[in-house]
Amino acid sequence: MEFLSYLISGLSLGSVYAIIALGYTMVYGIAKMLNFAHGDVIMVGGYVSFVAMSSLGLNGWLALLAAMAVCTLLGILIEGLAYRPLRQATSLAVLITAIGVSYLLQNSALLIWGANAKVYSPLIPLQNAAGEPNVVRLFGGQLSISYISLLTMLFCIVIMIGLTLFTSKTKMGKAMRACSEDKGAAQLMGINVNRTISVTFAIGSALAAIAGVLLCSSFPTLMPTTGSMPGIRAFTAAVFGGIGSIPGAFLGGLLIGIIEAMAKAYISTQLSNSIVFAVLILVLLVRPAGLLGKYVPEKV
Amino acid sequence: MGNFTERLRSMKRTTKVNTATYAGVVLAWLAVTLLRSGGVLGRSASGLLVPICCYIVMAVSLNLTVGILGELSLGHAGFMSVGAFSGVIAAMSLTDSIPSPVLRLAIAMVVGACFAGAVGALVGIPVLRLRGDYLAIVTLAFGEILKELINCLIVGHDENGLHILFNYNGLKNVEDLHLTERGLVIIKGAQGATGSQMLATFNAGVILILITLVIVLNLVNSRSGRAIMSIRDNRIAAESVGINITKYKMMAFVTSAALAGAAGALYGLNYSNLLATKFDFNTSILVLVFVVLGGLGNIWGSMVAAAVLYVLPEALRGLDKYRMLMYAVVLILVMLGTNNPQLKTLFGKLLPRRREEEV
Question: What does the DSSP 8-state code read for residue A293?
Fold first, then answer.
């Protein structure tokens, strides 16, 4: 029973990672860049929803929508101002710019909201009006799952299915896949590459906002650096599953979450990051392109 | 004097640049030493000198991996960390047997370089099989793993030798080392190295920079260096003319790690308290920024960028809370500016000689 409850908490954490990793992987697939600022968009999403709830008095769901709207705009803005001029530049130049954007977001948040941790009120309150915890009890009360964990997992599955349908069925989704295969050829086929990349950033950032709200609902502290570690873990998850692959990001996120929860529970809290990273290294040694990634050998 | 100009003219371009690089370091050392003896440099400015030297060595060594070998490494601070803590342990445990601080500092740097080089070799074997962004994430992962492992170390020294504990479950503490009365705790787990002697000096830093330059510049301009650069430019072509890819990749990677270790040892002995979390992902990124802004493969560029960008946030201290924001904006603008095609052609027109040579 203990194992099951650790598994559930791992799945819930993994779902958040998976949502972030989906954003990472989509942007990587199309723009071939590591968007290090993605983690900080999560943080911005968290703060926007926090402000919407505490200062504007909106309810949690409206705050989530507000966060998504702001982050979508932010994503389009970042892509247009910082990344688009560098489309022809080396990948390292883009990486450093992304790091610059990440610093910019963190320090802007520091200036606006201060360094002190804010106490976030979760999307679903931890306790109901009667003061009982909002949990589902299974096996005669031995296993309890909080509503927020269930909601996180539900969100993750819905987003995953939605994105798969979007990329395979819609015109925009097909344009995205075409751009990630070959930008030049896509342009010749009449696809507006710049607009497609913008839309990808918009979707990725909206997902980051959802992840931010869910993350802060599960771990209710909010700081300017809240996004960086989940961002790095989600990036690990995206690579783990095979970067550029949507099902890969989903699988990678869940596995990283479970490994982290298990490592914390059974091995060592201090070394939980190391264990996650060690598993990543082992997987990459056996499958250099990640679990579900396509290995493309160089042709001479 | 005529003889000198004659010789200068007959030198190759790389020889000129290298000589100028050495001369620049010596001149900078001279200028700083004069300023210090004249009392122009205040305490806070003097305190920056040793870290600047460390970061210059870090940038030059990372340039060997990123600029010369062409592989993106995001875990360079991990090697610095290994060097720092092994160096501190060496320097502290030899306090009784070797009284001379200069000698102990030198030993600490050598020990730091050896340990970091060994870890670099261990990391390099799996890492260098991967390519591009996968290599980047694995170096990042190794950097984080090294940080956490060092965070679990408890090390002490007494007349019976070194006592090392690995505090993986957070339950052990300093008492479990069972040191004798004269024993000395060197690293206290998550609290890091405390009470270390501050042996590092600016002169030692400059000597380390010069040694680094001798190693890196000679490597780059040697047969091995050309092999390493050929791997960067076209791996498949290099392999097809019989260059042993793994050997040269390892050579560059391990050299880079060892130099970072020496820089780490110097850094570690510059502070009485040192935390393993100091050497995290952000430090790796900081050094990477120095390398990229200084120019990939450009050794003196890395040095200038490291010195200027390390001082910049301190110089902006007057702007208080806005300084890191300014830093971020400057970083983005520089990247956008240096990669702007219009500006590039403008610079190309301003510097026609250089363009010819590159062609």
Answer: P
For residues A152 and A209, what is the distance between their CA atoms, to the nearest angstrom? 13
In which residue are the tokens 């479970």 written? A258
pLDDT tens digits, B143-188: 989 998 888 888 888 877 788 878 777 777 777 777 777 778 888 8
pLDDT for residue B119? 94
- Check residue A129 and give its pLDDT: 65
* Ramachandran area for residue B264 (φ above 0: left; ψ -120 to 50: alpha; else beta): alpha
Residues of B in contact with A93 (CB under 8 A): 292, 335, 338-339
DSSP state of B193: B
Q: Compute the distance between CA of residue A68 and CA of residue B197 in angstroms, rounded to an integer.
A: 52
CB atoms within 10 A of CB B180: 10
Look at the block and give the residue holding tokens 């501050």: B198
Highest mean pLDDT among A267-276, B107-116, B295-304 belongs to B107-116
- Total-model pTM: 0.86
Residue pair A23/A203 in contact by the 8 Å Cβ criterion:
yes
Cβ within 8 Å of A, B 108-167: 126, 129-131, 133-134, 136-138, 140-142, 144-145, 148-149, 151-152, 167
Question: Do B202 and B25 meet the contact criterion of CB atoms below 8 Å apart?
Answer: no
| Interface membership of B277 toward A (CB under 8 Å) | no
Give me the mean pLDDT over the A189-194 stretch.
91
Complex prediction ipTM: 0.83
Q: For residues B56 and B41, what is the distance between their CA atoms, to the nearest angstrom?
A: 20
d(CA A40, CA A168): 29
Q: Which of B281, B275, B287, B256 is nearest to B88 (CA)?
A: B275
Q: How many CB atoms lie within 10 A of CB B333?
A: 13
**Beta carbons of B292 and A271 less than 8 Å apart:** no
Residue B254, pLDDT above cutoff 70: yes
Backbone φ and ψ for B97, nearest 5 degrees, come out as -80, -30
Check: CB of residue B70 under 8 Å from CB of residue B280: no
Residue appearing with tokens 């520091």: A110
